[in-house]
Amino acid sequence: MALSSNLQPEPAPDTITLRSIVLGLATIAVATWYMTYFAGNLVKSYLPVAALIPFVLWVGINIGLNRFAPRFALSRIELLTIFSMMWIVGNLPAVGWGFYAVSLIPAPEFYASPENRLRDVVIPFLPDWLFLDANRPDVRAVYTGRHRGEPVPWLLWVRPFLWWFVGCISAVMAGFFGSVLFFKQWQERERLVFPMSEFPVALLEGADEGRTPAVFRDKIFWIGFWCVAGVICWNIIGYFQLSLPRITVFDQYRTKAVDLGLYFPPYYLRVQPLIMGLAYLCPVDILFSVWFYNAVNIFKVGMLNRTGFTVGLAGQPAKAGEIAMLEMHGALACLVLWSVWVARHHLKETVQKALNRIRAMDDGAPVTYRTAWVGLGVATAGIGGWMLSAGVGFWAMAGQLALMFMCYFGIAKYAAATGFTFLNPAGGKGVSLIHSLIGTSTLSPASQSMLILFNRNVFLGDSSRTTCLAAVPHIFRMFGNALRRHPWLWGMVPLAYLIGYVSAGGFYLFRCYDEGGLNGLLVSWPIDALVSRVAYIEGSKLSVFDTQKLGVWLFGFAEAGVLTYLRSQFAWWPFHPVAIAFPPGRYAFCLLIVWVVKVVILRFGGVHLYRRSLPFWYGAIVGYLFGISLSSVVDAIWFPDGGHFVHGW
Fold it and tell me: Considering its fold, how many domains does the chain have in total?
């Protein structure tokens, strides 16, 4: 029965509330616990399903609250607040960060042996305040498990976790303040699409009216939903009925590899609904460029392998994979520098507003430009000081910071331009480029050791799954102009990251002490990179600055520059340089399918049919999330020691 007008509850406030902050923190803690124990593979992308599943669950809960208890229903902004907080920490649980952090901190001493010479060559250069001595029984128990009744030695782990956090939060806040400075340029002047923010906003359209959001009332949405969820539900039935044939369309990329020949990289017929649903919002020219360049790159790498072509000085040749990395990183550097150059007038305006030389309203989002510039400077100094304290030399620190900022600037901008959730910049955070191009002859042993670990997952996670830095400009876009200056909007970023950091590290640490880290919970991967570089760290092997490799890097830079120039001069030019800087690899087939569908839709139905088809893709995404959630719950109850693949690379 409808309530009479005088009994209608007050509508939920359309602002960030303390209630939404508390619910967001609680969601982080619960989701982190669940992923630590039951679903550790849900963190791999810039918009991880680890953030999307709790969001969709809250949307469903809110639909029920609107119907049966409207007094307690959440507003659209409150739901976006919970989602934003979860997005910031989406890569921290399990194999996103916690798995590697707990593995690395005691690893140097535990894995040191006379054969790998870690104790003689590397460990003397590792700062004590970032690591623990695995020779101590209470530390070693993280590998072997604690005796029944023994407490977890929490205090022992506070120091290394605290100091890794100092470095990480400095980088997070540098990304936050950098996003403030560039957001207006990207949104208003370059008109980036921000596809990853369009999906959650679309799911909430009409939610503040006390009704079911409009997209859930669209039949096309449910067609897309069941096209994906139906496949996963069929496979879940097969968990119990082993004779039921499995539908493998969404299976892991390795099972979808097509062998193109002895020397050529495989082509992956990978279908991933989350990537495809968001990429449908991407401009057609970028979609075409990415899948087309992937085909070109496969041919190029294959021919380099086939001919045995290398570049580089004697003793340090670069083969096909390294050549491709140098070319792609050169293209990335060009795109980043061009982006800064294009934004020069806007940046000059932000400086003038920060210095009060322009009296117009300061439109920084969500803090003033003065705060943003000061904050960026302080955060950058924080990362630099942290690295210097860890033993990295000044010039090595400066070069690594420049490369890291280049990596994350490219990710933040081109995630906003494309909606691709698996952007993987060539060279990662930068150490691969340093080793390949600059060499190790000018780097101290301490610099080499810490730069390798700085580029591992323990610092912010892997560059291909660091969600917080890609999330910030999308969060600004979702909240819009009215709420960007709200104090909770900038306060919730470090608060959410702190709770996510503590939860992800704490839950995983407890699980290792409780079950024994050697039972597959801890690995040597974070330390393996050090072992492979021992000869270079001790100086028995040297690599030097290589002009031939620099030529390859400059070729990639020029390649992206020419394509950028052609796009600026000719509106019809179809190739976008982002395809060179961010190779799609195993997801090119997904983007090819989306490109074909979108071209056909626009050609025969125009913009109207394109907009009408969007609910199908939103339904496909929600169906994918529903299937993943259902599968993880089934595995947690009936298959806790095994589980089944549903989502991942």
Answer: 1
